[in-house]
Structure formats: C-alpha cells, structure tokens
Amino acid sequence: MxxxxxxxxxxxxxxxxxxxxxxxxxxxxxxEVFSLDRGDDHxxxxxxxxxxxxxxxxxxxxxxxxxxxLEGAAVRVxxxxxxxxxxxxFATPFYVMERIDGVPVRNGIPAAWADAPETQHRxxxxxxxxxxxxxxxxxxAVGLTDLGRAEGFxxxxxxxxxxxxxxxGGRDLPAAHGIGRWLDAHRPAGQAPTLFHGDYKLxxxxxxTDAPPRLxxxxxxxxxxxxxxxxxxxxxxxxHPVGGTMPLGTxxxxxxxxDQLPSAEAMVARYAERSGRDVSSIDxxxxxxxxxxxxxxEGSFAKWQRGESNKAVHEHFGxxxxxxxxSAAALIDGRPG
Length: 337
Known about the structure:
This protein has helices at residues 4-14, 60-70, 87-90, 111-114, 121-136, 153-167, 174-185, 229-238, 264-275, 282-305, 317-332; strands at residues 20-25, 32-38, 41-47, 80-84, 94-98, 194-196, 205-207, 215-218, 225-227. It is α+β, with helices and mostly antiparallel strands. It has 2 domains: 4-98, Phosphorylase Kinase, domain 1 (2-Layer Sandwich); 111-332, Alpha-Beta Complex (Aminoglycoside 3'-phosphotransferase, Chain: A, domain 2). The strands form 3 sheets. The chain has a 5-stranded antiparallel sheet, sandwiched between helices. Helix 7 packs parallel to helix 11.
C-alpha cells in the first residue's frame, strides 16, 4: 500500500518527521484496522470501508470525537492521536489511536485464564463494571450534547431499524416485521439517557492476557450515541458465554469454564446494583437487542450478496440473523432464547 501521503499528513499534524510502518491487522469489526508504527510510537489506525451499511455504522470520525471527549474521564478508552476526513490521504476517512496491549474475547480466551479457571468470572464482571463506568459519564459536561437525540430515543428505534432493513434491498425478513410490532406494543417507559456504546460485547473490549482477567479498554465506538443504557446491557448478554444466543469465548483452543461464570441474570443484577438503575423491564430489551442484532447482521450479509464485501465471514451473517430472530421470538413466547 502507498503510505507516502499518510506519512506526510502525520508529519504535518504532529510537527516532526518520522518514518512509518503500516500493516493490516485482523479484527476491527466493520472497519479496517492497521498497526501503525511511527518512530518509537506504536498506534492503531482505523478507517472506514469502501462500502458502508449505514451512515453511522462505519463513522470513524464520530468514533474519534467520542474518544477525544472521553480523554481523561473515568472510563477505559484508548487515547486518540489524530483524525482525517481527506480521502486522498488513505483512501477513506480514518483516525489514529494508541495501541492497547490487550486482546478481545472472540472464539477463545487467553491461555493464562484457562490455567486459572477460578478467576474467569472476573472477565464478565469487568465487562459489566466497565459498562457502568461508560453509562456514568456526564455526556453533557464532556461536550457530547449533540451526539444524538436523547428525547424519544426508545420510541424511534423500531421505525428506524425497519427502515434500515428496507434500505439494504435484500431479504424482507417477515419475522423482523412481526417482532417489530410486538416491540412497539410492549415498549417500556425507558431509562434516563446516557452515553451509549451501541455494540458493547466481549470482542469490542480489550483485556490483558494474564490472570486474573483485567479489562483495559472499550473500543469500536462508531455506533456510539446518547441513548437507553439497558440496550447496551442486553446487547452484551447476547454474547454471554453462559446461555447467550451467540456466545463468545467458547470455541477456541482455550475456552471459558462455564461453571465458573455468573449467569446472565447475575450480570443484570450486578449492573443494577452498581448503576442504581431499574432493570425490571430487561426482558423487553433482550427481545429488542436480538431483533436489532439480526438487522445489523443482515446489512453485512446483503453487502456480501451484492459482492460489496470481501470478508468471507459475512456469508454466514444471514443464518446468524435468522438465529437471532428465532431467539427473539422464543423470548416473546416465554421460551428460552
């Protein structure tokens, strides 16, 4: 890849001249991620893909703004370095942040955790505790007042996501429309708005690889807004290793010892205790989050169907979306989801 323009941009922005080395990294979710070494600094560059599912799903500049606002706050995030919206520099908008020496939990867990199963509960407890920290941020005080429309957030969600589904031009998914009607008919009053991550789960945070587990940073903020915090909580629990619809950390060479982990119900109780929020309507949020997750995955599947995605994993997102809709329907019917 041609990095001359990127090197010149960094020299201009940072006020010195240093050689750079750029290498593509795996992971990063919907965005493209690169390791960026410049002199003695070791950073990560995140850039938007050439084809986006939504105007927000790959908004790396929005993500940079959130990280910049949170710098110095009591929340675990990487330090932002610089951002750029000039597509002549590195093909699409991007930003640079500090590199955190940590790993997400996807298929498996670090070997040190597997060797100390009695400590593994800390991984999911840390996930909840870091979420409580995010939701405790005074988003007005840090300059994020206009990040999203807090008023009527929950009331807008069904219409917004059904419109998103229609915009893909792919499968119609009748089950999504039926569940959407149920969600509108049973919508709770909602929570006081907070800073809202939008894709909070075990593989969008970074952990130290030693034991006991320590959560170092919350990453992948491009879906961040101001919204209902219980959506973040219920979303995270879709991926909970114990009973989650799409469990993480359960299929790698080293996996969670499930009998050492708290249940999803215990996670909700921990969040309630530490945040002071009323979680009595969490069942609605469990349905909503699975339904929303299906629509999000369908966007990437539709891109793959159109030949606009070169990520092989997107081929499997259609079946995963179907599974999430089945899970949401089961919860509505009072069956395990």
